[in-house]
Amino acid sequence: MNDKVRCLRWWHGAVFFAAVLTIQLLLFAAAVLAGSMGLLGRTAVEVSASLFSPFAIAAQVLFTCSVLTGFALTVPRAFGTTARDLLALAPPRSSALVLAAAGVVPVGIVVDEVTFLLHAAAPGLFDTRALDTFSDVFALSGAASFALVTVVVTVGPALGEELFFRGFLLRAFRRDMPATAAIVLSAGLFGVLHLNALQGVGAACIGAYLGFAALATGSLWPAVGAHALNNLLTSVVARLDPSGVGSAAEEGHSVLLLVASLAATAMVVLSLARMGRDREGEAGRRPYLPSS
After folding, report:
1. Residue 131 exposed, middle or buried by CB count within 10 Å (0-12, 13-18, 19+)
2. What's the CA gap between 146 and 157, in Å, rounded?
């Protein structure tokens, strides 16, 4: 590791996140301004249809993920190293990739229950309107539009958000913090970027799992695969389930499904942790696991 990379500190991550959040807020403000000026329609229904059409959602996702990718890929150049090294882009074991991706399914069910409990406790703060709107985009669009937005939502965030949050931000925080603190902080900021209380909590919980998977396996790709699978399944469920993805936050899951998901999540986490200990032990490097 050269001297420039050694200079990477937690506050570099904080500065870059502040820049990304500012851009996201400016994009939101621009949409509000355009709506108030009648550029997106004359009625609230027309404005909503313009902002939340499949093509508009795809454009927003592509823009945000392009910004995240651009920032993430700028960092290695600034610190005189390669993206492969700084962002942990080395290929992982195939078993780690499969395990991390499969684990996102039970983790997602557990996260659904967390959002259900929050919505039940404070429905005004943790409302499901954004989730219902998201469902409508996938459920009511034509086949071509659904295919377009599904591909964008599956691939874009899996690359852009992972490169920035689990590639750069998490590892910048890890320079100065224990692994648990770095995972929690980067996951929390990931939730903040969603600019919605209920979506933010869900994203933060998923982000914590993805961060753990990235550090335990020593590679970003398991988190990328898990993120892509999570978004793909969410899109398909929104398309096929008339009640929409917001129904999980309003109704929760059965006790049996929840218990099974908790057990499966524990098994996946323990297996990934064991892989991480074996990998770091063999390499003789500083462990990235939360126990450190």
Report:
1. buried
2. 17
For the chain, the C-alpha Rg in angstroms (whole number) is: 19
Measured distance CA(166)–CA(34) in Å, rounded: 33
Residues 191-202: pLDDT tens digits?
A: 999 999 999 999
- Those residues whose C-beta lies under 8 Å from the C-beta of residue 19, and which sit 6 or more positions away, are 71
Average pLDDT for the chain = 90
Question: Which is more confident, 19 or 238?
Answer: 19
Distance CA 86, CA 89 (A): 8
Q: Cα torsion for 112, 57, 237, 260, to the nearest 10°?
A: -30
d(CA 204, CA 17) in angstroms, rounded, equals 15
Nearest-angstrom CA–CA distance, 218 and 234: 27
Each as own residue / partner, the long-range contacts of residues 185-194 (CB below 8 Å, 24 or more positions apart, any chain) are: 186/13, 186/211, 187/211, 189/17, 189/165, 190/161, 190/165, 192/21, 193/20, 193/21, 193/24
35-66 burial by CB neighbour count: b if 16+ within 10 A, else e? beeeebeeeeeebeebbeebebbbebbeebbe
Is 237 in contact with 245 (CB distance < 8 Å)? yes
Contacts of 276 (CB under 8 A, 6+ apart): 215, 216, 217, 218, 287, 288, 289
Other CB atoms within a 10 A radius of the CB of residue 29 amount to 10
**CA separation, residue 50 to residues 38, 39, 64 (Å):** 11, 10, 18
Contact present, 13 and 173 (Cβ < 8 Å): yes
pLDDT digits (tens, 9 = 90+) for 101-113: 999 999 999 999 9
Q: How many of the other CB atoms lie within 10 Å of CB of 140?
A: 11
Model-wide pTM > 0.85? yes
